[in-house]
Amino acid sequence: MRSTRARRRLDPRNWAGWKPFGIGERKPNNYLELVKAFRSVKGNRRYAWRILTRGTCDGCALGTKGMRDWTMDEIHLCNIRLRLLKLNTMPALDVSALADVSALERMSSAQLRDLGRLPYPMLRRAGEPGFTRIGWDEALDLAAPHLRDPSRFGVYLTSRGVPNENYFAAQKAVRALGSNSVDNAARICHSPSTVALKRAIGAAATTCSYTDWIGSDLIVFIGSNPSNNQPVAMKYLYHAKKAGTKVAMVNAYREPGMEKYWVPSNAESAVFGTKITDYFFGVNVGGDIGFLNGVLKHLIEDDRVDKAWVDARTTGFEEVRRALAGQSWEELEALSGASREQMAELARLLGEARSAVLVWSMGITQHAYGEDNVQAIVNLALARGFVGRDHCGLMPIRGHSGVQGGAEMGAYATGLPGGLPVTEANARRFGELWGFEVPTAPGLTATDMIDAAHAGGLDALVSSGGNFLEVLPDPGYCREALSRLKLRVHIDIVLSSQMLVPCEGPGDGAVLLLPAQTRYEMAGGVTETSTERRIIFSPEVPGPRIGEARPEWQIFTELAARARPELADRLRYAGTAEIRADIERAVPFYAGIAGLAEFGDNVQYGGRHLCPGGRFPTPDGRGRFAPVALPALERPDGAFMVATRRGKQFNSMVHERRDGFNGATREAVLMSPYDADRLGLADGTPVELRSAAGERTFRGRVLRAPLMPGNLQIHWPEGNVLLDPVRRSPDARIPDYNALVTVTRLDP
Predict the structure, then answer these.
(1) Per the database record, which ranges form the Molybdopterin oxidoreductase domain (predicted)?
(2) Among the residues of 522-637, which ranges form H helices?
(3) Which three-class secondary structure state does DSSP give residue 235?
(4) What is the mean pLDDT of residues 552-575?
């Protein structure tokens, strides 16, 4: 690795170009984002500045404290966080606007958010045109009776800045009510990573730290685009490039932001930009297993497997070797869309690298076979021994600050605190700890809740944040499901479109809106867990407070206390410090969280590396290879595989209609130039995408992009109308956010 002085010198070899600040290049204007953020918080700029400098970021899961972090001593500030400032500082909405929601129903989600913060509990009964203000006692007493039958309600928490304390208190409250039907956004994002990693290496988290990027020989991004989703990470890549690290990308789309990026807070990169990706390997949507299996097949045939490490620290390798011998190169090429030579090139890079970090995201997980996708990545890392040492690791990079902690706090239908499976023994353990009986059967996942509501098998849904109409496949199906419930309780800081769906279930249906506090408003402070397993304290930030908004941990525990008054003394907390102490008792590897109390306090569970020295937290202490079969993907002549992508947005919150990286508007249908020429479709041509059975359609306009032929991309959540709600992975139960479609030209 180069010396620190060498890394600080200017290095034109990594520059994106010689034009100052990339003038004339298509790219986001990071400095304009600062101006927009400054304008958006007019009247609350001092409060906004305190949030930026004294709070732990509630955006992507890198966990910056203020505007700094633990990877390097430099300023860190990204566009995502700037865009969230408005939500965190805006005044209350005028509740009279909710008296009749007919006008609100015509608004976009962005327009609804811009109305302001929810200040008071609001109630809308069946047949009423809108909401009326009620008191907290009336709201809680109305909801509590609907939560007494554990088989008839579900609870969902999104990842939007939700701290560990809220997750933990919510799941404990649901279990006190006799149910495991509590789920969170980790299900929709990285549940296949959780399942596959737990099975393969015994730990459901990234095995390394961000510091391991800098100085690694190789970083491979697979189905991941941090330039859009974790922009602070681009500074780490800048420093990694300066240290000599090579970057490879495996993806269906050659993401412009991963080709070259201008890091705004670093003078050299801000002026000249930085070339990020050194090697690009194009694969079909859904073709990752074919490509990754081919790479491993090459490693084996070329004698590039670290045999000593594999023999000493893993099991199952021979079974994988035999399985790969039975997969022909023709099959692997047909599925992946890549050539045998391209697979050999990545095998060479991995084989020659002394260290490597493998990074993946939702391009890998959001498939009906997402668990197998992750296992294929794990097989590669195990074959080269890239686990448990410096500059090596497996990294399922998280997109939101609340995702990693959500599952680890037990806000999961299939997992208890600490990620323990729902079994009789584990339920008994937590029952003894908490003083009430914990149910022993897994609960309903997020998608199961919608299915149950649609079928009349669910009476009540409590949703903390989120918007099923924008997050899950087939919004029409979700809308019908939501309308059939007797009661919906929406806990949030702003309005969303799902709140406006009336409850038309049997009897007197009702919709309750309960105003929540942001993490910066919570007395006693809160914590989040970053992608690198760092538990970070975020203090309360002095500033204006909104109406009667309450912390979500208090709302959930009070709902349960009123539904089960005999358990009230075991559910209520005096404050967040008491919750952290409860977390430390329940989750041993979160040791130290109870002592976090000041800005900057943090503890990284497991240390810099999990599985140190190749010692895995599995029953036999070994990592587990597993054969990965090729998925049966058939693409009829003339059909395309379409994937849903993110643009200028945070989760489903769209910030701009046009993506600064590629110029795509929200209705864009990204298509390869080869396919566009073959079909005679110029940029801007209106087209209709129709699902294989013909029952789902999406209308948009063609935009040529560096995409693999035979594949398309459209924006999420707009493209969710094409997705089949039945297609889910077998174990993680994650929806498949891809579809087989045909393309038809429309008349202008």
Answers:
(1) 117-561
(2) 552-563, 568-571, 576-586
(3) helix
(4) 98
